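Re: the 921-residue chain
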Amino acid sequence: MRNYLVLILFVLVFKISYSQFNEKELSFTFENVSHLEALQKINSDTDYQIYYLQNWFTDSLIQKKYTNENIEYIVADLLKGTMVNYFLYPPNKIILTNNNNIYSNLPEGFFGKDSAEVQTVSASRKVAPIFYAKGDESVSKSMETIRVGRETGDKSKETYTLSGYITNFESGDPIPDMTISTNDNRLLAVTSFEGFYRIELPIGSNILKFRALGIERTEKEIIIFNDGTLDLEFNESIEQLDEVVVEGDIYKNIEETVSGTEEIDSEESKTIPLVLGERDVLKVATALPGISSAGEGATGFNVRGGKADQNLVLFDGATMYNPQHFFGIFSAINPFSIGQLEVYKGNIPAKFGGRLSSVFDIKTKDGDNSEFKGEASLGPVTGNLVLETPVVKGKSSFMFGARGAYANWILRSMKEESLSKSRATFYDGVANYTHQVNENNKIKATAYYSKDNFSISSDSLYIYDNRLVSLRWQHKFNDKHLSEVQIANSGYTFNIEYERGANNDFDLGYKINETEARINLDYLHSTDLKFNYGVEGKLYAVAPGTLEPLNEESSVEYNSLEKERALESAAYISANYSITKKFAVDLGLRYSTFMALGEQTQYEYEEGAPKNQGTVRDTIQYGNNEVIETYGGPEIRAGARYLLTPSLSLKAGYNRSIQYVHILTNNTTISPIDTWKLSDLNIEPQTGHQYSFGVFKNLDANAYEISLEGFYKTSDKVLDFKTGAQLLMNENVETEVLQGEGKSYGVEFLLRKNRGKLNGWLGYTYSRSFLKLDSEFEEERVNNGEFFPSNFDKPHDLSMVANYKFTKRFSLSANFVYQTGRPVTVPVGNFTFNDAEYAVYSDRNSYRIPDFYRLDLGFNIEGNHKLNKVGHSFWTISVYNVLGRNNPYSVFYVTENGNVEAYKSSIFSIPVPSITYNFKF
């Protein structure tokens, strides 16, 4: 009782002294002086004594003026914007502290919960001060202690946000996929591809563990008093480990709200045996459930039963119209230049638009800004090289990649005479410049170009090329608000040079160009609520066809179709909200508009009549930039996730999308000479709806991932062709195409093993894809207006990718694919006319070619892992199509000498061995 009375007396005396402390009125003027100089002036001009450490303050200058103010007001105002707090100790002492407060009262309950006396001397502050165990044995003496934020009197919040960037000390590069966890592993964060992290920590002392592949394991004591920023640098690990297991994203597949996403690392694809030993992340993507191609030698992808033109391929934010070389056998992107590939096939984020089925978001890696390095490979038909070098050490870098094919020697060495004059070459190059201006601003510029030349047993030379440039500026307003401004331009052209030594030699050309500007912003309202919003605009320019004589002897007359132009724009916003710890939603709204622009000629057709040359009612001339037609509407993106347990979740999603550009093709599969057509007066944009639901589970301490996801898609105004359509150089192309309904549905299963000597995945998809072309006019109706299988309808699709490590240096890889045969249209009868036999064909796609299956094997040899060596080598010995399966690419029928003959074509009908040498320095 006596002790409590003494305490009460002390508090009363303190309060009286405190009130007298501020009685003096002071005046000061500080002109361009530092905080230290201001504090020293108060010390020298008054009888107040201020205690502090000089290293708490920076050299920043202040301008302040005070007239007849008390000392507490002056000190509090001077310390605004710093991490320094103050404590007034009567009669004339001012004690400064870094980050934390000094308290004059003990918290409630300090002497016990039942102590009535304590209630009478409760502190004037309504919350307890922060205490942390300075002498905690769990904290290593060598562990760095970092204080973050400035403690305030308001402790209504129990947790605060710590964020920042983590980089490699030696190179300055961001460290992606680094795990940051508390000592008890209850709180976890993972750095992004740019090295950014954000974690919510309880107020006070926290022990954080930092783990990443190739980086020294580190622990730090973080004492957090308020929201704050902490940028860190870590050294590379030099110790040799028996095995390193990185589990940075172990729960990402469970916890992320957006469903139907896949991430592919370029480095992970090096052990997967592919044709001629060429590493290819896009080919790896087709081994995942829901993604397939029409077959060997087919360009493009089919995602969840969608057409190949319904996929948006982005390369550092710029559109790539043809991401493949040589009819899809090789990727058009140097694999050594890729940092990451993200595929969205389900709930597509609102910031992406313009396609119905999927987004392939490819990002190049930044060059090393600390030292010169490179990577190269040499295979039987291709060679790759990527170089990285610092420009301004520690701040900017340049990356350059080049690749070329030299397959002509193989074609010329074949016994088949018709192939001796064939040629097939391609090359591509990519470069990017990255500059970290300061901690809040980063600039990245990317340029890309590729070109293909091939002529296989024909008189025609096919030439096509891609090019693109993009410039991105990333700006951080503060810890919660980030922005990115991007300008990009991309183009695709193809030419067919027909030369037969006669007078009908010609050059047929096509070109599409796209220019885009985008502003994208991310706002972190809280740990539970995040926003993404922005605007974008695209300007299209299409030269749909140019025909000109190839030489002076040609009788072909010059002809050029009118150019097409259009403006597409959109605004979008999305929110990711964790309603509870178990239930989260991702809601997005995108509103897009499309204006077809002149100068152009459009045709109006008679109502109640099919579109053909004979039903043209009027010809309308539109002037330059005059609006021909406007389309638009809302696009809804919605997803939800519910955690049944920390390792088991349910996800559902819904998408509504609009697509304003179409591919014109009458081939069984799309090819490099297919043309893109803009929506106009007679061709409407496509719309699509997708519903999905899935179950996601991690097993055996996250060593296994298993998922089962179903989807149902509908689409309208899908473009297809009339039988016998002529699409190239047709100024009335709308008379040769049809727009109908599409639908697809399916179930996707994935089992992935992430750890151990044996790793890889097994994927299976059951899906169906149908198209309906109905009309009141017979010539615009296919299969009597009923649904029929699309060209890429393959109900069963099974893939297995596995890698077995015998030792650290030797591993065996396998890749197995099985697919149901693709639908085809076949002759079911014949008739004779003018002494010639002609075929009568079945309903469209009512038969199938034989099923497709292929097994590839590879043996991988790593170089030794000595630290002091010039470079690291990697050998891959592989056999593509080990079983020698003669998988048909297509089946077709022609009339020769009055008879109908059937032909089957295939790309690789024998085992194809290869050996590739990779070297990294």
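Helices lie at 2-21, 35-45, 71-78, 116-120, 252-255, 281-285, 408-413.
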